[in-house]
C-alpha cells in the first residue's frame, strides 16, 4: 500500500522549522500542494517574520513540488480565514490540515503568570479551533477532509512546569473526539499525534545525546498515516525515535455503589475495583459512559 497525496492540498501550521517543516516537506515529497504557515516568531511566541515559511517553500519548489507561504498567526481568526481563502484561490480545495503551531511559556504553576497560561491556551487550542473552523465548510462541501491535532505527552500524562501547555494539549484531544464524531458523515477524519522530537521547542530540555536520537523526521511517518486517504479516525498516536505507540482514554468496568447515605464509604472500600483496568473499554462517544452506568444500575435493581 503506497501513501501518496497527489491532487491533495495541505495546510501545515508552524511549518517554518522543526517538526512542522518536516511535515510540510514530507507531504510535498509525496505529491501534496502545501500551504506553509509560520508566524516566524520566537519559541515563546514573540516577534514574527514570513521568512521562515518562505525558506521552506523554496525547498519544496526546488525539489519540484508546489507550495505557498503564509505568515498568519493562528490566534488571529481573520488571518486564518484569509489563509484558507488563499489556498482555495490558488488550488480550489483544502484536504489536509496539520495543526502544528505552538509556543512554550514553561514555569511551575505557582510561579506562572496567568497571561502566559492564557497565551499558550490561545495559540495551541484556539489556534487549532480557528484553523478547523476555517477549513470545515470546505471539507464538508467536498466530502473529504483529514485533520491532525498535535497533542503531547505533557497533556496526556503531565509534565512539571507545563500546566498551561499540558492543559492546551489535552484540550486538543477533546476537540478531536467531538470533531471526529461530527465529521464522520462528511468524510472528515480527525486524529491526534503526540510527538517526541528534538526541535527548537525542546533544545534546552534534554541532553544532546538524547536530542540526536529524537530527530523530527522520525515522527513524520505517523503524521503521514494519520492524514492519508487510508487514515483511521479518533486515534492518538505517540511517536519518537523510530517507535510508534497509541494512547487511549478508557473507561474501567467500575462498580455500582448505590445512592444511599453510605455510598461514599462503599466507594472508598471498592476504589480498588473501580480503578482496576481489567476489561476496560474505549467509549465511542461521551454518552457511552452514561449508558454503561445506567445499565449497571438497572442490572443491580433487577437482581434485588
What's this, in brief?
The chain has 304 residues and is an alpha/beta fold.
Strand composition percent: 5-15%
Number of helices: 10
| Record field, number of beta strands | 8
> Within the largest sheet, what's the order of strands?
3-2-1-4-5-6-7-8
Integer average pLDDT: 94
Structural class: alpha/beta
Listing every helix as H and every strand as E from the N terminus to the C terminus, the arrangement reads EHEHEHEHEHHEHHEEHH
Overall morphology? globular
> How many strands, which pairing sense, and closed or not: the largest β-sheet?
8 strands, mixed
First-last Cα distance: 55 Å
Portion of residues in helices? Answer: 40-55%
Computed CA radius of gyration, to the nearest angstrom:
21 Å
- Flag low-confidence runs: none
What does the model show?
This protein is α/β, with parallel strands linked by helices and 304 residues long. The protein is built from 10 helices and 8 strands. It has helices spanning 18-29, 51-62, 77-91, 114-142, 153-157, 163-183, 208-213, 220-226, 263-275, 287-302, and strands at residues 9-12, 33-37, 67-70, 96-99, 145-150, 188-195, 236-240, 243-247. It has an 8-stranded mixed β-sheet, with helices on both faces. Helix 4 (114-142) links the parallel strand 4 and strand 5 (145-150). Helix 1 (18-29) runs parallel beside helix 2 (51-62) and helix 4 runs parallel beside helix 6. The longest helix is centred in the middle third of the chain and has 29 residues, at 114-142. The protein starts with 8 loop residues before the first strand and ends with a helix. The relative contact order is 0.10. The mean pLDDT is 94.
Amino acid at each position: 500500500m503506497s501513501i501518496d497525496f497527489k491532487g491533495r492540498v495541505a495546510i501545515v501550521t508552524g511549518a517554518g522549522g522543526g517538526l512542522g517543516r518536516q511535515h510540510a516537506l514530507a507531504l510535498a515529497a509525496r505529491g501534496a500542494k502545501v500551504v506553509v504557515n509560520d508566524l516566524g516568531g520566537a519559541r515563546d511566541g514573540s516577534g514574527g517574520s514570513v521568512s521562515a515559511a518562505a525558506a521552506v517553500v523554496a525547498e519544496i519548489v526546488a525539489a519540484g513540488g508546489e507550495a505557498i507561504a503564509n505568515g498568519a498567526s493562528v490566534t488571529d481568526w481573520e488571518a486564518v480565514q484569509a489563509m484558507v481563502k488563499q489556498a482555495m484561490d490558488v488550488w480550489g480545495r483544502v484536504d489536509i490540515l496539520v495543526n502544528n503551531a505552538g509556543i512554550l511559556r514553561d514555569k511551575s504553576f505557582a510561579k506562572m503568570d496567568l497571561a502566559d497560561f492564557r497565551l499558550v491556551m490561545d495559540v495551541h487550542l484556539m489556534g487549532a479551533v480557528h484553523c478547523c473552523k476555517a477549513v470545515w465548510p470546505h471539507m464538508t462541501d467536498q466530502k473529504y477532509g483529514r485533520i491532525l491535532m498535535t497533542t503531547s505527552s505533557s497533556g496526556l500524562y503531565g509534565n512539571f512546569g507545563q500546566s498551561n501547555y499540558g492543559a492546551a494539549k489535552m484540550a486538543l484531544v477533546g476537540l478531536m473526539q467531538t470533531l471526529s464524531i461530527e465529521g464522520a458523515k462528511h468524510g472528515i477524519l480527525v486524529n491526534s499525534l503526540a510527538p517526541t522530537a528534538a526541535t527548537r521547542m525542546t533544545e534546552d530540555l534534554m541532553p544532546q545525546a538524547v536530542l540526536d536520537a529524537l530527530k523530527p523526521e522520525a515522527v513524520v511517518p505517523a503524521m503521514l498515516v494519520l492524514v492519508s486517504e487510508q487514515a483511521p479516525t479518533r486515534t492518538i498516536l505517540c511517536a519518537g525515535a523510530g517507535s510508534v505507540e497509541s494512547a487511549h482514554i478508557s473507561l474501567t468496568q467500575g462498580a455500582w455503589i448505590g445512592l444511599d447515605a453510605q455510598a461514599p464509604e462503599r466507594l472508598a472500600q471498592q476504589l480498588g475495583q473501580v480503578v482496576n483496568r481489567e476489561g476496560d473499554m474505549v467509549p465511542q462517544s461521551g454518552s457511552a459512559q452514561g449508558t454503561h452506568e445506567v445499565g449497571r444500575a438497572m442490572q443491580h435493581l433487577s437482581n434485588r
